[in-house]
Amino acid sequence: MSSPSQNSKEEIRHVEHTNEKYSPDEGQHVEARNDAGEVDIDAGYDPADVKRVMRKIDFRLIPILTMMYLVSAMDRANLSLAQAANKNQMVKDLELHIGNRYSIATMIFFIPYIILEVPSQAGLRVFGAKIWLGGATVLWGVMMLCMGFVKNWQQLTALRALLGVFEATLFPGAAYLISCWYPRRFMATRMSYFFIAAMFLQAFSGILAWGIGETLHTKSGLHGWQWIFIIYGLMTIFIGFCAIVLIVDFPDKATFLTEVEREIVLTRIQRDRNDAVYDHITFKKVMHYLTDFRIWLFGLFFCAAALCIYALAYFLPQILAGMGFDNKMSQILTAPPSFYSPIPCIIMAKLADKKKWRMQVVAFNALLTIIGVCMFSQLSKDQTAARYVGVFLAAGGCQASIPLITAWSQTCIRSQSKRAVMSAVVVAWGGIGGILAGVSFRQAEKPHYTTGIFLTVGLSAFAVVGSIALWVYFMAENRKADRGEKILEGDPDFRYQ
User: Fold this and answer.
1) Residue 24 predicted with pLDDT over 70
2) CB atoms within 10 A of CB 492
């Protein structure tokens, strides 16, 4: 076979045993099997060509989605950073100490975020990923910028609600977009790269906010908390405009690929799960998809992981203070667990894709979360080192779970419309996890947060048991399909992972 250097990039090199390709006009399911009788998604293509195309997609898709999710995570969480700036100056200026005003401003974000997850997916195909996701990023950046000029807590709360409106498009949209580009055996790794890189970089958010608040306090007549919102808003707007220029659209519309490169992508998708052709989302389809119990089960798994993530994001400094660390160290020691989290996340993702260990990695990380939470909350006060290790285990377990659950939910379904609904509903449960973190980790119980700790452990235990039960169900369904007793997801060749 010729080497890549001997062929132009627009040539498709087929091995002798097959010449079959995907036809967008016909949308047929291409049969390509290896000697073991399994569907071979790469049959007929030179591995160097496939690797080159995949790398091209990776570089265009993953980095910009990572940056968009980074500013999304920073913007939804930086209210606590602004609140702490300059000795709680924002609390005094906006009178957030009265009643539950601060809690209302924090929680109001999640209401439109949850409600609009599913409707937001309809615009992806209508306007394209560039305009829909990039435009939403610009708009919530404007909301952040405006927060720097609010005069009362009502204005802040209203802008937080609008922030939830526009941020509702991103995570489910990004998960859906990734799932449309990659075969199932690559989803967990790509989802993890996208998610965990943003979480890693977010660890520097607190340091950045502290620097902005201290350096720019009283500059141009504005307090430090105002500058935090302004600077963060400007960064988000910039990333949004970059996304409009850089983000790739769906494979059938991708102009950065040649025609034959698009063929490689679409053929592999078609062979993998027979849904390369887009099917329009309709109200009837959405209602039908919502009757699938798996969507809600994956949502609960996602909620369990999100609850722990939000709890650590909102309350880790107080938890560390309860271990005996002073205020300065309580802030500094929140960063190392975030630096550690990418390690288990990437390892678990690679195992999930290579070994098809979907349930195994989800259950394992939920179990790690339980162990970590129990360690930092239940060990005695003189076991500070062990309790801090527990924070690492909990942070690594819950953060690794998010992309793994998202990927698993996308590998067990077919049709692009169902893929969009699945990603939206599952991610919406993350917002519910955020609300649960806010109401269960009560200030009256700090630093032990007994109610929140029990809820976190309980939901994580449910994720362990539920994921095992779902896997048993999937394996039983696969055996029925192997015996010809059942067709899964409308495709005789489809099997659950």
Assistant:
1) no
2) 13
Separation between Cα atoms, residue 396 and residue 473, nearest integer Å:
28
Residue 58 · residue 127 · CB < 8 Å: no
Residues 6+ apart with CB under 8 A from 210: 81, 85, 331
CB 73 within 8 A of CB 199: yes
Q: First vs last Cα of the chain: how many Å apart?
A: 33
Closest CA to 472 of 364, 358, 369, 303: 358
Reported as a single tens digit per residue, the pLDDT across 58-106 is 999 999 999 999 999 899 888 878 887 888 899 899 999 898 898 889 8
Say which residues have a Cβ less than 8 Å from residue 279's Cβ, sequence separation at least 6.
Answer: 285, 415, 416, 417
pTM beyond 0.85:
yes
Q: What is the pLDDT of residue 206?
A: 78
- Kindly tell me if the per-residue pLDDT of 437 is higher than 70: yes
Tell me, what amino acid is at 149?
F
Q: Which segments of 247-341 does DSSP mark as H helices, in order?
A: 259-273, 283-289, 293-322, 327-332, 335-340
Q: What is the mean pLDDT of the segment spanning 193-208?
A: 86
Q: 40 near 32, Cβ under 8 Å?
A: yes
Q: DSSP readout, 159-194? A: HHHHHHHHHTTHHHHHHHHHHHHS-GGGHHHHHHHH
Can you list the domains of the chain with their CATH numbers?
Answer: 37-278 (1.20.1250.20), 281-497 (1.20.1250.20)
Question: For the stretch 210-227, what's the b/e string if a residue is b when 16 or more beta carbons lie within 10 angstroms of its beta carbon?
Answer: bebbeebbeeeeebbbbb
Cα–Cα distances (Å) from 174 to 46, 132, 262, 419, in that order, read 29, 11, 20, 12
Instruction: Kindly indicate the confidence band of residue 28, based on its pLDDT and cuts at 50, 70 and 90.
Output: very low
At 245, which amino acid appears? V
Report the C-alpha gap between 309 and 197 in whole angstroms.
Answer: 15
Q: Across the chain, what does the average pLDDT equal? A: 88
How far is it, in rounded angstroms, from Cα 155 to Cα 354? Answer: 49
State what percent of residues in the chain have pLDDT above 70.
92
Residues 6+ apart with CB under 8 A from 412: 294, 358, 474, 496, 497
Question: Using CA atoms, how far apart are residues 417 and 215, in angstroms rounded to an integer?
Answer: 48
Cis peptide upstream of residue 447 (ω within 30 degrees of 0):
yes
Q: What is the DSSP string of 274-286?
A: S--S-----HHHH
Q: What is the pLDDT of residue 253?
A: 82
